[in-house]
Design brief:
It contains twelve helices and eight strands. By secondary structure, it is α/β, with parallel strands linked by helices. The longest helix is centred in the middle third of the chain and has 17 residues. The radius of gyration is 18 Å and the shape is globular. It binds 3-hydroxy-3-methylglutaryl-coenzyme A and magnesium ion (MG). This is Hydroxymethylglutaryl-CoA lyase.
């Protein structure tokens, strides 16, 4: 079968916005450094497959993440198509914002940590210091009418610290959203979360004034929970889901992280349940097969494997 039989499922939204992170989260952790021209083609193929929102790159120092060292080149290759409000890129600090603004970006994402250890490893800052780093970034971005997303990593567990209390995550989320960010993305960086935990965190955020209309979910699939967790979040009212074409991804500063939820697996589940995504699944699978060839290894996505072989 090339598409699922459609049987509407209760409790799901009519439409879901997929926030495609393949070009950024996917490629930042690949051993192979993908040429900028290939990244440009990847973004263009994703667009053509119907992905409306695509995170393109990161404005971080190349010595921290060499895979994203070509941000300017990628954006130059994309031209006007790389800078709209639905083409965000990661920006950790004012230096990153300078670079993004020089290219005319209209959407950025800052990325905080719920835990001290990961804040130190990923940002070279403490949790308290990360706010000081992001505050001027968000203030300037807002003044320049940019759209701003705030990620929080290690929301469901941390490889060094173990369990992460829900209230600790909520405290970080509230601090970041209070800076004036438009959207919060809950990162399960190492893919350990489970459905009850997702519900508990969304409920705790709501109680502190962050409703599901401002929340996106970002599950890595290390423990095979990403799709189940996403469906649980959708039933709780979330409508924006992060995913990476072909299940690419990881995080260079959390070795136990593997790929993101595969966009194809998400699309199969949503289309089967009668939920609109705007994505052409065949075109997306073709894109992931092409990208797997560029990387020299097969896609880990179950749906890509099934459809590419059928
Ligand atoms: P630092 O070394 O403390 O920075 O890094 P610094 O401010 O001390 O600056 C050191 C040097 O870097 C200076 O140059 C700066 O100019 C330069 P020098 O004077 O030595 O020649 N510099 C920059 N150059 C270019 N662009 C910049 C920039 N900033 C400083 N933006 C920093 C602090 C935050 C920059 C660093 O820790 C960093 O970039 N961290 C990001 C690492 C990263 O990208 N991780 C992956 C993304 S997060 C993720 O994947 C999780 C997520 O997917 C959600 C989830 O799954 O949970 C989002
Ligand atoms: Mg991630």
């Amino acid at each position: 079968m090339r598409s699922p039989q459609v049987e509407a499922a209760a409790g799901l939204p009519a439409e879901v916005t997929i926030y495609e992170v393949g070009p950024r989260d996917g490629l930042q952790n690949e051993k192979t450094i993908v040429p900028a021209a290939t990244k440009v083609e990847f973004v263009r193929r994703l667009e053509a497959a119907g992905l409306g929102t695509i995170e393109t790159t990161s404005f971080v120092p190349a010595k921290w993440v060499p895979q994203m060292g070509d941000a300017e080149e990628v954006l130059a290759g994309l031209g006007a198509d790389g800078v709209g409000r639905r083409r965000p890129a990661l920006v950790p600090n004012e230096r990153g914002l300078d670079r993004a603004e020089e290219l005319g970006l209209q959407a950025i994402a800052v990325f905080g940590s719920a835990t001290e250890t990961f804040a130190r490893k990923n940002l070279n800052r403490s949790v308290a210091e990360q706010y000081a780093m992001f505050e001027p970034v968000v203030r300037r971005a807002q003044a320049d009418s940019m759209w701003v997303r705030a990620y929080v990593s290690m929301c469901f567990g941390d490889p060094w610290e173990g369990p992460v209390p829900v209230e600790q995550v909520v405290d970080v989320a509230v601090r970041l959203m209070d800076l004036g960010c438009d959207q919060l993305s809950l990162g399960d960086t190492i893919g350990v979360g489970t459905t009850g935990h997702v519900h508990r965190l969304l409920e705790a955020l709501e109680a502190r004034g962050i409703g599901t209309d401002r929340v996106a979910v970002h599950f890595h699939d290390t423990y095979g929970q990403a799709l189940a967790n996403t469906m649980a979040a959708l039933r709780d009212g979330v409508t924006v889901v992060d995913a990476a074409a072909g299940g690419l991804g990881g995080c260079p500063y959390a070795k136990s992280a593997t790929g993101n939820l595969a966009t194809e697996d998400l699309v199969w589940a949503l289309h089967g349940a009668g939920v609109r995504t705007g994505v052409d699944l065949d075109a997306l699978v073709e894109t992931s097969v092409w990208m797997a060839e560029q990387l020299g290894r097969p896609s880990p996505s179950r749906v890509v494997k099934a459809l590419a072989g059928s």
